[in-house]
Amino acid sequence: MTNNISDIRSAVKKVAWGFFLIHIHFNLGSIDILPDWAGYALIVSALSAIALEQESAKLIRPFGIFLVAWSTIDWILKIFGLQIYLNYVSLIPSAINLYFTFQLFTNLAAIADKYSCPQTKKLLVLRTVNVIFTVTNTFLLYLGIITEGGEVYTVLMVAILVAALIIMLAMLITLFSFASSLGDIEDKLQQALSQAPQDAANPMSYYQTPQSDVPYGAPAEEADSNAQE
Fold this sequence. Notes:
Layout: H1 2-23, E1 27-28, E2 31-32, H2 36-53, H3 61-79, H4 91-114, H5 120-142, H6 151-201, H7 220-228
Antiparallel strand pairs: 1-2
Helix pairs in contact: 1-2, 1-6, 2-3, 3-4, 4-5, 5-6
């Protein structure tokens, strides 16, 4: 039991750091030293442990591998000043990423609920908010509803950046707090297991015979008379 919780806790930490690498960008020239592909790879490496609790997590592994490959190609091309642009085909990775994140947070919320962690509802809310934000952002920008230039575009971009930052911080805080809650459960279980051998060494501690007022070795007649009195 404790091993399972330990593995899940480690997996949740990997997911948290994976999203950190995906959403935080630190460029040196044209090179992002916190590449997205490293974040996706970290999340994919956590799926095996998550799948032990939620078997449906196996279904998103191929999508995670695709995102690792796509972001790796994009990262390499940007080093040489190139960029992947295939018109609306470029929306496919965004759709895959949306499904990947949605299902991942669904699985994590189910695990949180199983272990009675307080982050269950937060994970579900963040899952829904991320879908709404991503779809809205896609319709406004990628489909050309809002074009570049002008005050409206500037205000919109600022609003999107602020919203993205808030969602990202909420995701990271929730995931790390989820890992912390699993750590508390693991500590309690280890304390319970450490006390169990002590109780097992003294089996009479589980059962105490009732004490009689009759001294040990007293004659039966004396015991009967005491009982009648």
